[in-house]
Amino acid sequence: MCGIAGYIGKKEAQNFLLDALKRLEYRGYDSAGVAVLSDDAILKCIKSVGKICVLEEKLNSNNLSGKSGIAHTRWATHGFPSEKNAHPHGDCKEEIFVVHNGIIENYKKLKEDLEKSGHKFCSETDTEVISHLIESHFKGNLEEAVLNSLVHIKGAYAIAVIAKYDPAKIVVAKKSSPLIIGIGVGENFIASDASAVIGYTDQIVYLEDDELGIITADDYHIISTISNNCVQREHCKIKQDASEIQKEGYEHFIFKEIFEGPEVVKNSFRGRIVDGEGLVKLGGLDVLNQDQIRNINRIIIIACGTANYAGRVGEYMLEEYAGIPVEVEIASEFRYRKPIIDAQTVVIAISQSGETADTLASVQEAKRKGALVLGIVNTVGSTIARETHAGVYNHAGPEISVASTKAFISQIVVLSLLTVYLGRTRDMSFVIGKRITDEIKKLPDLMTRVLKSSNEVEKLAKKYSNYRNFFFLGRKYNYPIACEGALKLKEVASLIHAEGYAGGEMKHGPIAMIDKNFPCFFIAPSDSVYEKMWSNIEEVKARDGKVIAIATEGNEDIKSLADDVIYIPKTLEMLTPLLTAIPLHLFAAYVGIELGLDIDKPRNLAKSVTVE
Ligand code: AGP
Description:
Elements: E1 3-8, H1 13-24, E2 31-37, E3 43-49, H2 52-61, E4 68-74, E5 89-90, E6 96-104, H3 107-116, H4 128-137, H5 142-150, E7 155-163, E8 170-175, E9 180-183, E10 188-191, E11 203-206, E12 211-215, E13 220-224, E14 230-231, E15 236-237, H6 242-246, H7 253-259, H8 261-269, E16 273-274, E17 279-280, H9 290-295, E18 298-303, H10 305-322, E19 326-330, H11 331-334, E20 345-351, H12 357-368, E21 372-377, H13 383-387, E22 390-393, H14 406-423, H15 430-451, H16 454-464, E23 469-474, H17 479-492, E24 497-502, E25 520-523, H18 530-541, E26 547-552, E27 564-568, H19 577-594
Helix pairs in contact: 3-4, 4-5, 8-14, 8-15, 10-14, 10-17, 14-15, 15-19, 16-19, 17-19
The chain binds 2-deoxy-2-amino glucitol-6-phosphate.
2-deoxy-2-amino glucitol-6-phosphate (AGP) binds next to helix 10.
């Protein structure tokens, strides 16, 4: 998720552009840049790595004069954060500049074709293909060139384009990524969301998918990129609270990020499933050859906290469907052990931030011992991403809330893709591979159905927010989810103690705690261990314990046993964690609200633990 902005009018563009980038920094903050067209048609671009303040310092000593311009703050998806990978991206002659939020799925093919026709690229990004495509179609009319370029592009985009030889306009286009036009007097604004234009105008127009806009200082036109017809669009009056807009109407980032889940799953598997073949493409692992994959004799997954629980879901997947022995280690333990590693051992580090000190130290230790070290990281170009030999990015977008939710979902999706990727090179059949990839593609809709039960979860949170102790119980794929549910409740509703256990462990001690003041979440989808979970629920009920069950739609029997039931749709057993995690994340957030806590920034915690 990146932030884009544009200005055209009677004032110096740079002032609005910088201000807009600061408002949009929550959308991505690893590099930034602006391109401004001066009154004498000089088109200049300045970029920087790091936060917006670094760019601001640069601009203070290299002021860009001009009344139209575009700007970008980046959350890298392709290409490490660097000045050359920062947007705006220019064409060969730097007479056209583009800023982009989204992912161009077919950029590699487009780049090959453009290079064959003589275009010179200077970045590793997918976005740069847009600048060169427009250049190849430019005959003096910018919107025409953009229209003729978009037909070649597959993927998601919100773009803004300026050109030296068709000045006095900015051309924008939208597909799957957000874009608004701010309507001023003698000036107009463009941004990824309305938070960027607050204080400049309260009138905006939302662009819809497959629409292109031509913006001048005094006017704007919207056309459909499909029919080329003009589109009339109502102006909307916006709220004047930037932080509320950044949360896109949600009270807190954690809710926004939980409800982003279906979109995050799409972005995590976008361009990675080979339709109809039951195969997965993971470009970041192309360094691995098939013999190496077949010779893997053990995988060690290292991570901390929520990422560790995602790894533990992956352990079951990789053992059951890729036939590889797996162990999951808490990174702060692994780094001080004497792990037995050989050249056939693959170590996988999972980290949302890519900066967790214990995980980084474990990566370095594993490399010292000769393991092939892979990363599953959300923050492109982060330290762990750079330290590992290869890896897979989550594409989950920035996760602002301290409690990890959408990144956790993405980590499990990537692990399921990795299971097919490795399995199909070993003994996984076409049928199994296709069954898994077909089901992964259904997940966004299945998750949307679970999210529709958020009101029931909110009622449960009100009902149980006065209890001070909880157990979370699950088996097999959902044992790690029990641990994650307990951690999320401890983290977000930090006055409550909770523990996650394997369902079968209750009788080995914890059940001594059960009475009517000790509610238990049972994660009990209709899977291979459901009967065992039923027995565990009976054990708790026999001791007057309260039971909240997460069960599969259609299972009416469980209502006779549980005090409360939250339902999830049926899916493959290995993918149930992606559905059972949602009610637990929501429960923790709603309980935190009930307790009047700052659920995006729980006490004592930091988003990234960069110290030991
Ligand atoms: C999760 O909600 C916590 N914020 C924490 O456990 C986190 O998962 C852990 O610190 C690992 O962070 P990382 O994924 O950035 O490495």
